[in-house]
User: Fold this.
Amino acid sequence: MNTTETYDSKSDTLAHIERVRKLLFECVSNLSHRGQVHDASKLQEPEKSAFDACTLKLKTMPYGGPEYKAALTELGPALKHHYEANGHHPEHWTNGLDDMSLFDIVEMFIDWKASTERMANGGDIRKSLEINTDRFKISPQLKSILANTIKEMGW
Assistant:
C-alpha cells in the first residue's frame, strides 16, 4: 500500500462484522439444538418412572436443603443415568466444571434458572448460584460472570 493513499477501513470492518455474525449464529445453532434435546433422557427408562415418583415431592422443597438432598438420593440409579447422559451437569464430567464447555455451562445455568422456578422457594436464581458455588466449587470469576448474567437478564 502506498503510504500517501488514505486507507478506508470500512470494507475490513464490514467483513469482520459479517464473520462475527456467522460465528454467533453457529453458537445460536448449538444452543438451539441443546434446547431441543435438553433432558430428553428423563422421558425414557430408567429415568422416567423415578422422576414420576419424585418430581412432585421435589417441587415442595426448597432447593439445596436436607430434604432436597435426601430426595436426590432416592433417585439413585436414575439420577446417575441422567448425569451420565447429559453433559450440562457437572456430575457428568470427571473434573466437573473444569471439563465443561461454555455451552455446557450456559445450558447448566439456564437449567438452574428454570429449575428454581418450580421449587418451593421458586425463582431465586441468586440463592441457587450461592448454593451451587459451594456444591460445584465455582471459581470467584465464574460466579461473578453468572451473577452479572442474572443482572443483565433482569432475573
In short: The two ends are 51 Å apart (CA to CA). The mean pLDDT is 94. The longest helix spans residues 10-37.
